[in-house]
């Protein structure tokens, strides 16, 4: 059983930065493709970024390109999302996903002045 725990969310001003972390337990993270999703109030959950098991391949939603960077440290069983130049429309609960089936509980990101 894979358990995913996100952290690093919070309140940040527009233009600011945050780094989210997703730590896995119960399995070896390096076995899985990982991804970040987000869900804003009243909206469906949407894809943000994904990273291959070895970290060599990444893909981003158009809204994240050029501002967000996904990475992973398999030795630490942890995935990251570095978010820069944050906008109010980035406000959402951010979820990590493993192997397309396992989800974390989410971490709130609020971008507001």
List the helices and strands and how they pair.
Elements: E1 3-7, E2 10-12, E3 18-25, E4 34-39, E5 46-51, E6 58-60, E7 68-73, E8 78-83, E9 92-98, E10 102-103, E11 107-111
Parallel strand pairs: 2-11
Antiparallel strand pairs: 1-3, 3-8, 4-5, 4-9, 5-6, 7-8, 9-10, 9-11
Strand content: over 45%
The gyration radius over C-alpha positions equals: 13 Å
Task: Please write the string of helix (H) and strand (E) elements.
Answer: EEEEEEEEEEE
The major beta sheet can be summarized as: 7 strands, mixed
Number of helices: 0
Unreliable parts: none
Mean pLDDT: 94
Structure class? mainly beta
Q: Tell me roughly what share of residues is in helical segments.
A: under 10%
Overall geometry: globular
Protein model, in words:
With 113 residues, the protein is mostly beta strands. It is 0% helix and 50% strand. The protein contains no helices and 11 strands. It has strands spanning 3-7, 10-12, 18-25, 34-39, 46-51, 58-60, 68-73, 78-83, 92-98, 102-103, 107-111. The strands form 2 sheets. Strands 2, 4, 5, 6, 9, 10 and 11 form a 7-stranded mixed beta sheet that branches. The radius of gyration is 13 Å and the shape is globular. The protein starts with a strand and ends with a strand. The model has no long low-confidence stretch (mean pLDDT 94).
Task: Please name the defining characteristics of this protein.
113 residues; 11 strands
């Amino acid at each position: 059983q894979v358990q995913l725990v996100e952290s690093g969310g919070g309140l940040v001003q527009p233009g600011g930065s945050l780094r989210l972390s997703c730590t896995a337990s119960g399995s070896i993270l390096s076995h899985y493709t990982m991804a970040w999703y987000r869900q804003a109030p009243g909206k469906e959950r949407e894809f943000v970024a994904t990273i291959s098991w070895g970290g060599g391949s990444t893909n981003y939603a158009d809204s994240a390109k050029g501002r967000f960077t996904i990475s992973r440290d398999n030795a630490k069983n942890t995935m990251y999302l570095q978010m820069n130049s944050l906008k109010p429309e980035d406000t959402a609960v951010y979820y990590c996903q493993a192997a397309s089936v396992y989800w974390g509980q989410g971490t709130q990101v609020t971008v507001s002045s």
